[in-house]
Backbone:
């Protein structure tokens, strides 16, 4: 009888255990997201995350083996939120032209500060040190979000198709990442370019990004 009872209870126990794991994982991600909203990635420590999540540091590493792994998971959630904003924009804004879209793209960054801060270091730092599993899940999630938004993008810009629309989004991403260091240079760079007209290498990030996206869209239109 006791063996039967144990067998009957074990699925419930497993369910409770899985629920507890999911709860801990969510708490960790929320704690990291909160801290990353206030500080840069380089300043974040796993000790801080563990303390805020009220778990042991060893437990934290069971869920996320590296800081990069954890931050890439946070960035993935931020990406999802940004794409939802784009979906809402493309659904509710009529008509959408190149000027309106490029303005929205740049202005949307103001509502996703943490997303923008992590974006430039995803290929150079986070993806280099995160696990293969986490990177794969991130790419699969990103692919799903892109192909969910593409029909709306192609509807707004009939000269785009699935292939060219995907290329356009990848180009926008490359612009946002590539121009970041020119828009927000380090203190050393700012000091170095003070004289001899070298300040031309410091860009107005938003203005440059908006103009570039506008040029891209117009270029796709003429192809």
Residues:
């Amino acid at each position: 009888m006791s063996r039967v009872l144990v067998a009957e209870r074990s699925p419930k126990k497993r369910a409770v255990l899985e629920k507890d794991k999911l709860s801990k994982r969510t708490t960790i991600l929320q704690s990291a997201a909160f801290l990353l909203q206030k500080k840069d990635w380089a300043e974040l420590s796993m000790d801080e995350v563990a303390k805020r999540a009220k778990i042991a540091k060893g437990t934290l590493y069971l869920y996320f083996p590296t800081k990069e792994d954890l931050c890439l998971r946070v960035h993935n959630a931020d990406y999802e939120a940004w794409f939802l904003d784009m979906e809402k924009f493309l659904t509710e804004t009529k008509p959408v032209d190149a000027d309106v879209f490029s303005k929205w793209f740049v202005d949307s960054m103001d509502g996703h500060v943490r997303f923008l801060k992590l974006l430039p270091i995803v290929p150079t730092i986070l993806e280099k040190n995160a696990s293969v599993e986490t990177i794969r899940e991130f790419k699969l999630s990103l692919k799903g979000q892109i192909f969910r938004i593409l029909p709306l993008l192609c509807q707004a810009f009939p000269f785009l198709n699935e292939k060219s629309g995907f290329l356009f989004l990848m180009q926008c991403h490359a612009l946002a990442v590539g121009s970041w260091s020119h828009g927000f240079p380090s203190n050393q760079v700012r000091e170095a370019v003070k004289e001899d007209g070298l300040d031309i290498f410091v860009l107005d990030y938003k203005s440059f990004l908006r103009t570039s996206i506008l040029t891209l869209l117009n270029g796709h239109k003429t192809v």
Summary: Confidence is low (pLDDT under 50) at residues 4-8. The chain has twelve helices and no strands. The CA atoms of residues 45 and 67 lie 8 Å apart. The longest helix spans residues 2-38.
